[in-house]
Amino acid sequence: MTDRHPAGAAHLALLVVYTDHLEEAHRFYCGLGLAFVREQHGAGPVHYACTLPDGTVLELFPAGEGRPVSRVRLGFHVAGGEMTPPLPPGRHVVRDPDGRAVELYAR
């Protein structure tokens, strides 16, 4: 990972979204135009990871004991006309498979 921020400036590097519906969440977030890679580290659980254009890593990880589904709110800029169904320009709020609000800013 490269550091494109001034010295001392904190920036988001990793966001892990815990889900009770891993495959459904994977399809949902892929539908937003995100490209995930299936991963498994050692004996750990299978999960999905994607690197966003700014270098931030977004992971979809199965929830479980010690890893509960969280109430995080996410927002993405998306190409609305390329979505299924297409979204007109503007702000839209949808729900992911775990019921989290996801804001979409369609252009």
Break the fold down into its secondary structure elements and pairings:
Blueprint: E1 14-19, H1 22-30, E2 37-39, E3 47-51, E4 57-62, E5 74-78, E6 90-95, E7 101-106
Parallel strand pairs: 1-4, 5-7
Antiparallel strand pairs: 2-3, 3-4, 6-7
What does this structure look like?
- There is one protein chain.
- By secondary structure, the chain is mainly beta.
- 8% of the residues lie in helices and 35% in strands.
- It contains 1 helix and 7 strands; from the N terminus they run βαββββββ.
- The chain has one helix spanning 22-30, and strands at 14-19, 37-39, 47-51, 57-62, 74-78, 90-95, 101-106.
- The strands form 2 sheets. A 4-stranded mixed β-sheet has the order 1-4-3-2.
Briefly characterize the structure.
With about 110 residues, the chain is mainly beta.
